Amino acid sequence: MTQPGDESIAQHVARLARFLVEEDLESVRIERPHESFEVGRTATERPAVTLVSPKAPLAQSEPRVERITADRVGIFHFSRPIPLEGERIDGDRELGYVEQLGIRNAVRSRGPGYVRAILQRDGDLVDYGRPLFELDRD
Description:
mainly beta, CATH 2.40.50.100, 2 domains, 4-stranded antiparallel beta sheet, 10 strands
């Protein structure tokens, strides 16, 4: 059996990655005297859930759904007031922002619609092109 000091860095990282997945964590930070490191993962996209009443007639045409995506790599935050799923957005509104190097880069609705799904959580690390919101356009 190997002692903790006998493990290579790759073995430490592999063990931490398994721990992240098993415990459904986003990151783990290890601190010791004179050293620290953090292992993390990007958030996975949560599926949008749509409830349909069995008695409701089906619409003739599907609503136009638009995905609002991150145009930068950084940390995603909601703007205030926080948008809610099902909320009506009138006009162009800031829904959140991606913080990159301390700079707020606005994420806007780009027009009216209903918030169909919120696909990220406040504080999530996002990559370029990562879906943030889904909007039903009128």
